[in-house]
Amino acid sequence: MSTCxxxxxxxxxxxxxxxxxxxYTFDSFECAIHRLAPSCGHxxxxxxxxxxxxxxxxxxxxxxxxxxxxKGLRDHVPG
Length: 79
Hints:
This is Prokaryotic metallothionein. It comes from Marinactinospora rubrisoli. This protein is α+β, with helices and mostly antiparallel strands. It has helices at residues 29-36, 62-67, and strands at residues 2-3, 10-11, 15-19, 22-26, 52-54, 57-59. The protein contains two helices and six strands, in the order E-E-E-E-H-E-E-H.
């Protein structure tokens, strides 16, 4: 059994995530999101989807990015 890096739960079905040269052990996606997902630079919600980036800041949506002064952004449209 391994121990979750976030909540300390010992669980037989943990999983490992490697990111930016670090390795993390989690017992749930909830704990992984809590530890690894960036927070929106405007509303502070954790960005679980694609979000948008302006400079080095991540935002949950274009509206939040524009609220922080970003220019020229649009939501991604495939195709």
